[in-house]
Amino acid sequence: xxxxxxxxxxxxxxxxxxxxxxxxxxxxxxxxxxxxxxxxxxxxxxxxxxxxxxxxxxxxxxxxxxxxxxxxxxxxxxxxxxxxxxxxxxxxxxxxxxxxxxxxxxxxxxxxxxxxxxxxxxxxxxxxxxxxxxxxxxxxxxxxxxxxxxxxxxxxxxxxxxxxxxxxxxxxxxxxxxxxxxxxxxxxxxxxxxxxxxxxxxxxxxxxxxxxxxxxxxxxxxxxxxxxxxxxxxxxxxxxxxxxxxxxxxxxxxxxxxxxxxxxxxxxxxxxxxxxxxxxxxxxxxxxxxxxx
Amino acid sequence: xxxxxxxxxxxxxxxxxxxxxxxxxxxxxxxxxxxxxxxxxxxxxxxxxxxxxxxxxxxxxxxxxxxxxxxxxxxxxxxxxxxxxxxxxxxxxxxxxxxxxxxxxxxxxxxxxxxxxxxxxxxxxxxxxxxxxxxxxxxxxxxxxxxxxxxxxxxxxxxxxxxxxxxxxxxxxxxxxxxxxxxxxxxxxxxxxxxxxxxxxxxxxxxxxxxxxxxxxxxxxxxxxxxxxxxxxxxxxxxxxxxxxxxxxxxxxxxx
Amino acid sequence: xxxxxxxxxxxxxxxxxxxxxxxxxxxxxxxxxxxxxxxxxxxxxxxxxxxxxxxxxxxxxxxxxxxxxxxxxxxxxxxxxxxxxxxxxxxxxxxxxxxxxxxxxxxxxxxxxxxxxxxxxxxxxxxxxxxxxxxxxxxxxxxxxxxxxxxxxxxxxxxxxxxxxxxxxxxxxxxxxxxxxxxxxxxxxxxxxxxxxxxxxxxxxxxxxxxxxxxxxxxxxxxxxxxxxxxxxxxxxxxxxxxxxxxxxxxxxxxxxxxxxxxxxxxxxxxxxxxxxxxxxxxxxxxxxxxxxxxxxxxxxxxxxxxxxxxxxxx
Lengths: 293, 256, 315
Prior knowledge:
B: alpha/beta; C: disordered N terminus
């Protein structure tokens, strides 16, 4: 029977092989294509709007003219505020999970919590921020409320990246330090953390990019449609690039006229977020290559 | 070998030591004395408990979850696991060198200063002197004296292992424990480390998977099998006239 | 030494070794423990706030109408601001499910295909280029994808297909798929790469081609990991807000085709939360929607977690 099949087998097999692998290769090309299309389209249409005044002035004439300085400022402030919230907690939690935790119910519950936190939709973080920071704590719509909300949102990312960096430092470093009479904390602080820090910071930069690009969590905790001055305190509202695009594209009365502004803002946001991510990816690749353990 | 001037002072004494990893009985009633200025080798098939025993001597098993210990281990008469004994303090007096060279990703200089700095040595002059002394003692000074600022990770495997030895020696330990220190090294580097062990004059306890190595460098040898100390005696006697059949089977390679 | 016969001679004796921690060490440990627990605390706080604010819809302040659970879960009418208001979430839930499943029909095959390409076919140089590209694609802010949907696909569909609106399920699904494909691909690749080389070698040695090995050996061996990837992609699409807000159209109805517009949970939240007074029935109703969304995504996450554990156990 097998002998009989061998007659036609090769051609059919070869054809199927070719088709299947072609489809798979196409998905690769497709992804690269989508990436190029998105970036290219925004860059092509947005480049015309970019100018020095666009980056350094306040909006004018119902947003149809002027610049987006307050939105750039707001996004940077909110993202940095988020990082300040997430990094101390996230690094701390990662050190606990990687260095101190022993398998047990407590650790399983913490891990499950962090894992689920990373799956909570960003708009739910927004609701939570609204209920807790804006209303219960009385911060109002403010930089503080928005930064805290964004900080919680990126916390799982920071924890996961930091824990991975800590786990990649070899056990032998810890053993060597302990055998030389270091205490647990001394070994962590003097040997493990310095070795893991570049990796942890790379994770933080990736998280920073994510915070800068988010929209839903800040719509009702931090952002306003229009401001006339840079914020003077953390209790003030700010504009942000992401919400600015959303407002101009969906809420404005002159959507057609603000289109160049929309593309320009989108380009600035895309450049900021992809720039940060790309930096982190490159640094991470360099670190991996340079690592000798 | 330091056999001629051995002073017969007992430095480490183990009495009826039982050790468990959870339910696993890793050491069964081990009793042995180790003498000052001697090299004591511990041999046996993998999983026989020799490394576990070594790590008990400087409390490196403390972090293993579910580890239980019965019996006494004394270093110069002081209980290692007594209610008042401090593991950190013990590890400063009992140095350890590991299976794979494990220098920190720091300069050679900072690697060696790590221990002294932990005990509060800060003065540059003092540290310089300690580094030189430790590197000389580890027979590495001439090779690296001009590279002290270089990362220890850039050295060859044999040099790295001697940096680790120097790093342990910089704390001026009373005893040095070595856990298969040459298993990751090539023959030339192995010879250098062995040469150092033979001439150091320190009290050394070394675990080795290599019987020829035990025969070459140690004064006394202990043979472990399935968690028990089967035989312990002068190296020459153990390898030429083993008292136990298990020992004989192991050293002649007839092992089932 | 005599032991009673019931105690095996090997029973653990002796004292547990406890590393004696100095007060400083204990303090440091406690600090890190608190950091870790705070992450868990947030999860609890989020749950508590969502549920307690949502409860206000069903157990209202005096003077407001108590909305029956049946109305909230089964009614198709979402008229939160009408005088005789109605808070039915069914159309919104169906809207969410519609865009999510439509997007996964695209993102699933595409993401898995890409994962197979990265794990099994791409050469090292290609991987070095494509993996960061996938990561960057995942990093594109969703507001930009939503914006793209509005200015490209929407006018195209309206103009060339003669639809009343280009803001519909299909447009939304396409851009949600762009967003969740990287998630599926990178998690899927991890699963596929975990298949040991020896298994692949065995297949090649029996005369299988590359595709036959992928299809009959590698994919079955990593099936639970791939399912985890698709489920997490699904979760990401379901929770996405801004893309949906911008391109799903916003009509609270049951869609009859891919070209109908819908109003999923997330976009309802984002669009209406800004305009409602805190403490009003509408406010509580929005939190109740948030609760549904939270539970749906939580269920997906737990399913993925469970499958992932299963997958690790088997490999």
